[in-house]
Amino acid sequence: MSTCRKSRDIETKKALWMLRLLIQKLQRGLSVLAHRGPEDLREVQVPATMVPDDVSEGHFVVFAVKGEETKRFVVELDYLTNPAFLRLLETAKEEYGFRQKGALEIPCPPEELQKILDDTCY
Question: Terminus-to-terminus CA distance in the chain, angstroms?
């Protein structure tokens, strides 16, 4: 088994673990809603989300921000298993926490994110 494949397998397991944690948090949040009566649920309004035309299914938007330099990227969901991309997400979590509102921002130079997206061995 190649080193690249071993690394990818480890990062895939890490990504799945993080996904499980996210699902658990969502389930806890939904269980709180389930305990409300039907009249309470009518009060909960979810605003419509507008997805830009350049973001196709299976993609999401990320902003690479370093100082005054900001660049928008449309990223394939497959990159959620890329070890280098996951490290950037970890940095964003440390910097902004899970309560970040709006678009996903990653605190790195745009060139660094572009290099990760251009890398084909992950």
Answer: 14
The answer to whether 116 and 67 have CB atoms below 8 angstroms apart is: no
CA distances from 6 to 42, 83, 115, 118, 122 (A): 49, 11, 21, 20, 10
Predicted confidence (pLDDT) per residue in 1-39, tens digit: 567 677 777 777 777 777 776 676 666 666 555 555 555
pLDDT tens for each residue of 91-109: 999 988 877 677 789 999 9
pTM for the full model? 0.57
Identify the CA nearest to 108 among candidates 73, 59, 57: 73
**In angstroms, rounded to a whole number, what is the distance separating the alpha carbons of residues 79 and 85?**
7
State the sign of the Cα–Cα–Cα–Cα dihedral 96, 84, 62, 81: negative
